[in-house]
Amino acid sequence: MKRLRNKNMMILVVIFIVTLTSSIGYSALQSNLKVTADLNVLKDYIPDGTLYDMMHHISEMDNSSSKYVNSPSGVDFSEISSNTNGKGVYELHITKDDKYPIHYYRGDVDNNVIFANFCWKIIRTTETGGIKLIYNGEPSDDGKCDNMGAATEIGTSAYNSDYDDAKYVGYKYDNDEVDSTIKKKIDKWYEENIEGKYSNYLEDTIFCNDRSISSQSESSIFYESRYRNYEHNIPSLECSREEDKFTIANKKLNYAIGLITVDEVAYAGGVYGSDNNTYYLYTNQYYWTMSPDSFIGSDAFIWCISSTGYLSRSNVYGGNGIRPVVSLKHETKYSSGNGSKDTPFLITPITKSLYSVIKSKSVLDNIKSEYVESETGIDFSQISSDTNGKGIYELHTTASDKYPVYYYRGDVTDNNIIFADFCWKIIRTTSSGGVKIIYNGSPTSDNKCTNTTGTSTQIGTSAYNEDDDAKYVGYKYDNDEVDSTIKEKIESWYKTNIDEKKDASGKSYTTYIEDLEFCNDRSSRVTVSDIFYGSYDRNYYNGNRKPSLVCPQDEDKFTVANKKLTYPVGLITNDETAYAGGVWGIENTTYYLYTNRWYWTMSPCYFNIEKGTFMWYVAPLGGFFDGFVGETFGERPVVSLTSATQVIGIGTSDDPYILAQ
After folding, report:
1. Which of 91, 183, 501, 592 has the fewest CB atoms lying closer than 10 Å?
2. How confident is the model at residue 661 (pLDDT cuts 50, 70, 90)?
3. Is residue 35 pLDDT above 60, yes or no?
4. How many CB atoms lie within 10 A of CB 172?
5. Are strands 524-526 and 530-533 parallel, antiparallel or unpaired?
6. In the beta sheet, which residues pair with residue 657?
7. What pLDDT shows up at residue 7?
């Protein structure tokens, strides 16, 4: 920035800038002003530009004195970063005339980013205007990035398992046809965590494995990075030899990922042999760079960062940390944050496994806990309450299963989810790790799920079946060849509103749904004039209150796979209602299934020769009752999201879970 020589004029400009900032915001100024590299400049700043623009507008030239550089000739790379030798964002002066001048972070800075569900630190920009990041662990539950130690790494590894040949300084070797040990590890991590979902954010930047030689003798080889960063302290971002440039385009990389170089560490504030525990690359761990140092005798050496922050060298077979590096595309914007550990720049929302979130909040249902007074756990003869269940419970009979079942019970406020542009309530998880949800209306214009009661929680009303015969307790009947009245209605709605509806990427919403088993339990106990079905005996007969999620007869299991369903949609069961907090004949207006409306379950109740055919339904006051199949009650479809479901949000009505697509 050109310096103002007139003191009065400077005061007027400062007043003008402050006034303008307060009235129109910093983002309107950023295209016209180059501001100081003060670490507080981005406080409370919500951008409308790119990360590159942000760095460009807070950078200082690195070959002149500035706020945190005392020397008139700029940063001294023979000394570590400090309050007098670099702290902030700097423009690499030799690139100032390039289309995209390179800017780099140095010292103790706020350069934290959340991308792809992980924390990263910004290293620098690239010659194409990209943003190079180094891995820094996982965010905390409240979205902070304050990791140190082993938490900043994806693991440890040798750089190469073999070491007795100069070729093993290669990120690939043997004519660059064989992957190094560390490259295999990094590529596998990328496949599992970035590929597909997040790879379109990344540019195919150059990763430099600089094997150019500065000197050699009969018994040793010294590489250029040693010459630059050990002998002369003149780091460079140039990769001088084409054969040392690793990209996807030249087929030396499978994915756009690699490691930091020793030169990038030097720009950041690291120096050979000098401890530095204040700059952003200090982690209290040893970890690898991608830069060869030497081959001496029969040992190959690579540069690394030591546990005290200085530049060091390690034999390639050493077990040092792995911190992958990627580069975001030039156009990448951030939605919020100021780069601090508490408020990182947010590139992609933090997502989490819905099943894992539910699991983490659960408690066993057969023990005393915060909202269960009884030493033996929940009493299903009583409704849910602050003393008989409120929250998420693990079904104790499934505790040793691969996917224990967790269910919501009582007056819960964090089981709201938006899926396919509709609000749903989470009922429970499934034996395959899916998440079963029940329809609950449409969200508000600002994506809240405020529906609690009334017809808005239903897709409509219907009889369960039009005729009166024992067979009409069937979701299908006549050898399961004829659809019930309600099945036709539910599947017609699903076809239009789920299967034929596409998400932002063009996929049918059906792709997010597992082919769950829906149970129309017709197991029975027969008397002279009655047929009593399984759920009747479990949840009513002789005061029995023992709900179950086991479907006892194969013929009552309805799935798309066994061709009893056209689409993976059904209804809630009476047993699920009991787990949620409902009891026959007892009012419950506080649990999450209460809607002040009648609506069907999928569970047969009984058939009586004189009275007719009855199914269980949820009553307006929350308990469940037996309803004649020809009655008109509400329809609330139920589907099950797959175990792979990732979400953002916290599940409340104001901030419901939303699928991360």
Report:
1. 501
2. low
3. no
4. 16
5. antiparallel
6. 417
7. 35
pTM given for the model: 0.73
DSSP β-bridge partners for residue 519? 557
pLDDT at 190: 98
On whether the CB atoms of residues 239 and 267 are closer than 8 A, the answer is no
Instruction: Name, in order, each residue with C-beta under 8 angstroms of 474's C-beta and a sequence gap of 6 or more.
Output: 465, 480, 484, 520, 522, 604
CA 521/CA 147 separation, integer angstroms: 51
Q: Which residues contact 188 (CB under 8 A, 6 or more apart)?
A: none
Backbone CA torsion sign across 57, 59, 65, 67 = positive
- pLDDT tens readout for residues 102-114: 999 999 999 999 9
Average the pLDDT over 362-373 and give the result: 98
Residue 17 scores a pLDDT above 80: no
Q: For residue 53, what is the enclosing H or E element?
A: helix 51-57
The whole-chain average pLDDT of the chain stands at: 92
Torsion angle (degrees, nearest 10) of CA 87, 92, 93, 94: 160
pLDDT at residue 335, as a whole number: 86
Residue located via tokens 């040798």:
158
Give the per-residue pLDDT at 468. 87
Contact present, 302 and 157 (Cβ < 8 Å) = no
Helix (H, G, I), strand (E, B) or coil at 392: strand
* pLDDT tens per residue, range 145-191: 999 999 999 999 999 999 999 999 999 999 999 999 999 999 999 99
Residue 352 tokens read as: 């989490």
Please answer whether residues 624 and 466 qualify as being in contact, where contact means their C-beta atoms are separated by less than 8 angstroms. no
Rounded to a whole number of angstroms, the distance between the first and last alpha carbons of the chain is: 43
| Helix intervals (H) in 167-277 | 181-193, 224-226, 262-268
Sketch the domain layout of the chain as residue ranges.
Answer: 34-346, 353-659
Q: Over range 257-267, report the average pLDDT.
A: 98
- Alpha carbons 62 and 65: distance in angstroms, whole number: 8
**Tokens standing for residue 56:** 């460009």
Length of the chain: 661
Q: Higher confidence at residue 1 or residue 295? A: 295
**Which residues, 6 or more positions from 64, have their beta carbon under 8 angstroms from its beta carbon?**
72, 73, 74
**What are the phi and psi torsion angles at 250 (to 5°)?**
-90, 10
Tell me, what's the pLDDT at 106? Answer: 98
Residue of 96, 99, 94 whose CA lies nearest to 127: 99
Token pair recorded at residue 328: 């975001």
Strand-pair category, 345-346 with 112-115: parallel
3-state secondary structure 326-351: EEECCCCECCECCCCCCCCEECCCCC
Q: DSSP H helical segments within 498-633, as ranges?
A: 534-539, 574-580
Contacts of 512 (CB under 8 A, 6+ apart): 419, 503, 641, 642, 645, 659
